[in-house]
Amino acid sequence: MSKKNFIQVFEYQKLKYDENQDFKKHHFDAMVLFNEKNQNKYYTVVNKGVLFNSYVGVIQIGGLTIEILPKADNSNNPDKGTWQKVLLNMLKVCKHIQVDNVSETNLNKKYNSILEVYFEMYLNELESLIKKGLIKKYRRIQSNQNALKGKLVFSQNIQKNLIHKERFYCEHQLYDKDHLMHQILYRGLLILKDLVNNNLKDKLNRILFEFQDYQQVMINKNHFEKLVNDRKTQPYLRGIDIAKMIILNYSPNLNSGNNNMLTLLFDMNKLWEEYIYRILQKHKPNGYQVSFQNSDKFWEHKTIRPDIVITNDQNENFIIDTKWKIINANNPSDDDLKQMFTYNLHWEANKSMLLYPRINQIDKEGTFHYNQLEKKCKVGFVNILDNGKIIQTKISSQIVFNKLISSNE
Questions:
Q1: 284-408: what fold?
Q2: How do residues 148-168 score in pLDDT, each as one tens digit?
Q3: Could you tell me the pTM of the whole model?
Q4: Residue 367 to residue 226: CA distance in whole angstroms
């Protein structure tokens, strides 16, 4: 992928075709159509361009790749390479990128876009499967036979063999490699033919050679629901997961020309929420349990659901609600505070925290006043970077010891 066909932007940034020579009017038209088909949730269409929102990730239109990066600093010229690594790290922690497949060394490797990480993972998975030997499975087929084989399909036999009485139209089982799992993997490879850069083309072509005798099937989400996993297919799960991502996020022929689109987009609010939860779960202190998105009845059919609940051995609850936005410590929104107050009451928690990414803010703790019940809510901030380096191992201690629990004891 050449730099000429690669654009990096940050969330809440505009991209216009009259301001960026690589972003053309036909790219814009394809993006408008794609967004309309998805309830306009990924970005806002503006005059001659788009305004990105909380969704980060990659959009690939034909030969153009647009990478949308998260940003939690107040720099006028943030380092795109650093924030790409932040996004890759969050995806790895949240298991959107398999941990075993992407080492710390690979995460430090310079990728043009995060799509390249997935493409390389996919090819590596398939290369590994080929070396182990592609498995055979039983599949049902219907065909004309010279002898009765399996079950006779009466309606088709009458239709097709009215003249040729010596033939039998049968349904029978075949044990071979041309089954649904390989057809899914093959479809993923065919999509990649027009998407991978020159560094991966040789590997892709070698792997395609191994799949050339399989049927080309237009795979959709229903095919994935038909898959049955067992001991034999266990090694296929990662490859199938990536194939599912590639196939279901690929939109061919959205517009005239070659504007096929592949999207890999994540809501940064949900990604931040899951990222904090997984770090807390991994580094929780003894005597504490961490649970995610606890849901309880609130009003009629409506439910209430804080992001994270931490419970100690004395059954004391501590509530965390994550927010991916930059605020002043003295100015949380009224809606956020009211939401936390409700959590405090409903989960009988004396302490809760709104957790934001830190720039240079200082934590601030306040008290809710209601019928002499003094329940506390802290506006807390956590560092993502330290001198440009990701510091996920310190996040748990920042939250649990210094912010939420220790200050309550």
A1: Trna Endonuclease; Chain: A, domain 1 (3.40.1350)
A2: 777 777 677 777 777 777 788
A3: 0.82
A4: 53
